[in-house]
UniProtKB/TrEMBL annotation:
Annotated Mechanosensitive ion channel MscS domain residues: 134-204
Pfam family, one: MS_channel_3rd
Protein source organism: Novosphingobium album
Coiled coil region boundaries: none
Subcellular location as annotated: Cell membrane
Name of the protein described by the UniProt record: Mechanosensitive ion channel
Predominant place of localization: membrane
Keywords, ordered alphabetically: Cell membrane, Membrane, Transmembrane, Transmembrane helix
Annotated family: Belongs to the MscS (TC 1.A.23) family.
Amino acid sequence: MSKASDQPVAGAEGIRDAVASHSQTMGGVVDTLDRLALQVGHTRVSVWDMIVLVLVVVAVIAIAWSVSKLANRLLRRMTRLDDTQKLLAEKLISLLVWAIAILVGIDVLGIDLTALTVFSGAFGLAIGFGLQKTFGNLIAGIILLLDKSIKPGDVIAIADQSGQSTFGQIRKIGIRAVSLTTRDQKEYLIPNENLMVNQVENWSYSSRNVRMQVPVGISYHADIEKAEELMLEAARSVQRVLKAPPPTVWLDSYGDNAIRFVIHCWITDPEEGIGNVRSDVLKKLWWLFKEHGIEIPFPQRDLNLRDSAAWRELVDALRQPAANAPLRDPSE
């Protein structure tokens, strides 16, 4: 069996010969490092082999990272591609660059993969099960970018397994997860697969216009026509509410304590939040109602007592102590 076949890093021998041919001093150092070896069965691993392996791995990572960054910069300068297409192209180019870099590194090192067929098969099977979710998220991210259903900048609401909804703006679509930032600057990393299998509300998919509702209750004694005018005035006074489509007011229902209305108004920047718009409308409406005498009712409850023999006995028992009580001297 030849020496090359005994070495797991056969490329180290070629690099050693190249170094020795250019410098006898360096060749002597390399020979010394090569003699410091560990023999395991038919496999011989020297210090020189490990040095070459580390240097090639570092070089491959550095070159692949640099080429990937350079390609991404060139893509960002291209005006024909939108943000989603640029992001998809960056992901695919990065995968291609790293795949080529790994293959080139294996070729430079001269690693004989046939000797590791059985081991690599079992190891690959284990990695396949372990990274199943990772590859699933990778494919899901590519699909999301291809169909443009979700892209950076979109405002979405997604429900988790417990039914709680998370609302925020997409900042980044990564290989494994989507970065979702809420209004309180909390950043959630949602796996790409969740966006594929769960129901997602995309508030800016085909249009950025979003209609929001502001519930309002007024007294039954109030002038509903005047109240509707004030509701529209309050909605139009908020800067973020669109003039077209204009705000509208609907009578929603007759409640136990109030006549319930709903103010419908449109905004075009849902990423800035909707709670603050609702707050501004209600605060403005509060002062308008006070100015024009429109009452906001309090909850009311009527207590009805039925007459019965037991009730009359209870009333008589309460009256008797008061009637039989001795009179006190006012001077006391």
